Amino acid sequence: MAEAAIEAFGLVREFKKGLRAVDDIELRVEPGEVYGFLGPNGAGKSTTVHMLTTLLPPTAGSARVGGHDVVTEGEEVRAIIGAALQDAALDPFLTGSEHMKLQTALHGMRGREGRERGEELLTRVGLSKAADRKVGGYSGGMRRRLDLALALVHRPRILFLDEPTTGLDVQSRSALWEEVQRLAGDRGVTVFLTTQYLEEADVLADRVGIIHRGRIVAEGTPEALKAEIGRPSVEATPVEEEDLPRMRQVLTRFGEAVASSPKGAAVRLLGGDAQLAQVVRALDAEDIGIQDLQLHAPTLDDVFLAKTGRSLEGAAEEEEPNPRRDAAAREEALAA
Amino acid sequence: MSRSTVALQVGMLARRSVVRTLRQPAMVIPALTFPLLLLAINSSGLDSATRLPGFPSDSYFEFALAIAFVQGALFSANSAGTNVSNDVETGFLNRLSLTPLRRVALLLGQLAGILALGLIQAVTFLGVGLVFGAGIKAGVGGALVIVAMSLLISLAFGCIGAFVALRTGSGEAVQGTFPLFFAALFLSSMSLPRNLIESDWFRTIADWNPVSYMLEGIRSLVITGWDGEALALGFACAGTLALLALAATASALRTRMART
Amino acid sequence: MRRGGFISIALAVGWRNVHTYFTNPAFIVPGILFPLFFFTAFAGGLSRVDSIPGFDYSAGYTAFVYGFVLLQASAFGGIFTGFSIARDFESGFSRRLMLAAPRRGGIVGGYWIAAVVRAGFNVLMITIVGLITGLQIAGNGVDLVGLYTLALLVNAAAMLFGSGVAMRLRTMQAGPAMQVPVFLILFLAPVWVPYDLLTGWVQAAASANPLTLALEAGRGFIAGDPTKVLPAFAVVAGLLTLSVLWARGGLRSAERAV
User: Fold this and answer.
1) What is the ipTM of this complex?
2) CATH number of A6-90+138-226+313-322
3) Whether C and B touch (3+ CB pairs < 8 Å), yes or no
4) What is the number of other CB atoms lying within 10 angstroms of the CB of residue B33?
């Protein structure tokens, strides 16, 4: 078997008072793959990324990135990875160009080489016109693009993106997705992407790992995971609002109730989409007019719900410790 | 790909540190104007103190000029601390951690920003002092020594600010130390020479307070001339504080940038 | 449904601010520590100043400094309440208050109540520390009433000035705009030596500074030798009137923004 791009073996990270932000993570990401790490706020995604990018030592377990151990070969790992972490991590008083100049210089690119690489990346992310403006005046989308460009300076073969589109508008998000797809597709970069957005994982990821309370509860391609759940849901909206309770009663004969819009009712069909016709006939028999009827294929949220008993949206855990601020934990880790 | 040398890294980070300090007028202007304002108020308000028997100067302005340099250094602490805490809070330090950057380069780079502001302050205060009639008894050489001592004091307090920022990762904590620094300045021979402080407890604190000796070192060059003892004590206190603060900052940086 | 009148609104807002103040060490501590620190530093470090030829104050240097610190604590107690107002605007809480209260002047009244309580607490602490460390107040009951009334008026004037700034700017960034003018007024007065021992431009500034009269009157009360009482109260009343108008303008500005 070819060497994995990223491997984790029983990875654990414990913080003060025994809080286990990451609890025995095992994963393997193949070279060139886009791996989506999906979970709600506080699930342990960022802590996992910090360990894989050598910014936080594991409490137990091990991990290898690009064939190098993250604890004993940290420098080698950093040489081959790029990371755009949860905070855009930019200095508001420097311009985009100045950031690029600093980053290229720190990676050993001198003079013309650094300048050309910087211009190339800024153009690629659409920031060449704003390059001489201070980052403090950039929009959220612009900061994210600069962040990504800086992570690519040294042509890493493995890229970590920690919630890269959180807080971005639709347009900025699409632009970032395109860039990620280009990186993975054209250039064979392995991308480890954490996200709380189902759609993002669905669109971008070759494989998805769903994390909940520090543990991976499901892993596979989005299609395979959804097929595992299998059953579609139907959502109906009555013509007359007062028919809604009766509509709910009829629908629950065909499966368990699931979340729906306030004016409608939805159930997961026990017998699959073949039951759709029966649902319509049943509603008709009760003389309930149907204003709208939709059949939904299973989503990753359904997968999360099936595995954890909760919906991904609204499943935010208690606040994940902020690894980069937990100086005391770092001291503990160093002393250990 | 070649790795950047430490010298290049220091150069890049020093440039960044200086640029971002100077691009924050809200930080630079108070660091210059506040000490001068207090100097103006104090020197005029307490000018009659020169009539006290044993007061070492005819001009309270010359006596008080040293305060501006030390007070300016407190602003250095604030500026350095705030800049470093911003780097921690924004995650910029993490970005730097992921590059081949050496910690020593980051430390030296940060110091460059502290020294840049310190130099601007020292030159400004010296210039204002001369314009408003202060004579430097120790001459041009003395003026240069004043700048050197002022830079050393700025370095010491700047490192303290950076240490607090790295330990706590919080700009608020840095701001919270400001009153403590002011306390250290006030509980010294700031307003009167130590031998003229009547209150025993206050004089004892001033005797033990290293800030007293930093003030007296600079002051001696202005009102006395070349006073070896005052200079030695001033440099010793500033130098020791600077070394300790630097060591503490380096240690805190090691913890904060704890990459494997 | 009945809606609150001026007094009930003022009491409600005042209670909320007082409660917040006393349950948050981050608010209490600076309010006490700063004036206390100035008191001990000046009284201790500059006590020899009373030996300057021409220094003529019978109650001693500690009492001389106490007079300044009293007004300083009162003024800054008012300004810190201005900070609270700015904070409330920034968080959006003020909007809630202004939408709920029909008599919006009551809101400002409530903040004033809080300012008085805060300053009163700080002055009490400073006075206790002063008395323990040898402060001698020679004034009688009437003098003390005069002294603390003066402090109360200065507190009100500062608070209304701060509130006017806070209601216009509606952000914590308004802090320096509140602090700096009050700081200048305080320190361009005979802080460390009597007016007659001032020289140069500071003497000129002090002669034009309304707080100089208040400071001298306050020190007179402390020494049991009231001086310039009517001019001092007149000047402070004038400052207070201007502050009321300033605060009213600020309230109008804030109302437009709701």
Assistant:
1) 0.80
2) 3.40.50.300
3) yes
4) 11
